[in-house]
Design a protein that fits this description.
Residues 286-395 form the PH domain. The protein is α+β, with helices and mostly antiparallel strands. The chain has 15 helices and 15 strands. Among the domains are: 2-155, no CATH class; 245-394, Pleckstrin-homology domain (PH domain)/Phosphotyrosine-binding domain (PTB) (PH-domain like), CATH 2.30.29.30. Strands 5-4-8-6-7-13-14-15-9-10-11-12 form a twelve-stranded mixed sheet, with helices on both faces. Strands 1-2-3 form a three-stranded antiparallel sheet, covered by helices on one side.
Length: 435
Amino acid sequence: MAATAILLSELKNINNSYFIGFRSLTHEADKQGEYATPQEKTFSIGFTNLNESLHELEDHDLDALVADLRSGLPPQEPSTHDGIITLVDDQTSTLAVSREFMPADTCTRLTAQSLRQVKTSFTSDIRDKTGISEEPQSKADKVKLALEKLKEAKVRKLIIKVVMSDNSSKTLMVDERQTVREVLDKLFEKTHCDCSINWSLCETNPELQIERSFEDHENLVERLSAWTRHSENKIYFLLRPQKYVMFTEPQLFYLWKKSKANLCGINNQAKELLIKENFGGSTQIVPDLEGMLYLKEDGKKVWKPRYFVLRASGIYYVPKGKTKSSSDLACFVHFDKVNIYMTSDYKQKYRAPTNFCFILKHPHIQMESPYIKFLCCEEEHTLLLWVISIRIAKYGTILYKNYQAAVKKASTFQSFPSPAYKGKNKNVKIQDFIC
């Protein structure tokens, strides 16, 4: 009974402190240029061997524990807190529905009855995936259920709305363990579209007029947690032909100095050799990209040309009066704390020389900030070179593993494309830069 009391006490502590939802994040850096980190609650069960402790319980004690685990928090009506609707169910751990990811009219219609229906659906889905029966028969089953519930109680979940290319939408429940690749697989099943390697989950930020495709290995819940509470950002499910162009057309980035005629003559065997040379070894090889770009001055709508050089660690520039030698280069930005974003209509918004711009910023920055780096290219081809090459420098061989997984998925799944999900290829057209 003492072990049962300890377990129930720990469970009560979890339930009392447990809150799932978006974390309040700051979007600005402090005066030293360091970024604020989200505050998270951590939990400890307090046993060196929880499985052994559960097996030591008597059957009636274990029944009491399982009953308490299954009941979770006391039944109550759905409550709201800072834009989060918290759902409590007698079969699953607490779930949170973010208002930002549900249509406005849907949020207003979430009555107690409709919430119970949503929770029932999620409960059934969790049972199907975990293989846990509603009424465990043996002690081993009860221990397994207790372990699963304790583990599940620590997992954050979000309900998100993903917008399709035809402006329809799909609603999914995702948890913090899932990668973007796993969410894409869910969408393949829901939309019955083809499993092309070019399908992407993209985030848009209307305030900054930017877009970024999530990388397949990234954790989606973690990325969405960087959004501000009342964000108007959206998630799109779209075809992006430039997603893995560094592997389908590697010559564009590793032989970029050659003429278009020479690039057109590259056969598949030569492409495979380029991939092996640059991604197959233990050392990451970054395209030796360099050239003139326009840099936006801080706080001004003024753009000045500077000569930039790409390195594995970041982007460097040539100071005035200096040469392009490595000893003279000055660091512009490191890649470890920033992501790259495509922009829209910056010629009008910031008086950029062209609309072929990109920015580099920390993901927690969601609005205007002096810590955003703005760069502008002369032409679309140059924009493609820099954006893809920066992704290669930042992620390296992880991108190649993502590509291999996407190719495997596309080859093993036989689906029929639906006209509603053909995608809007509004970004860079790869065929324009080949033959």
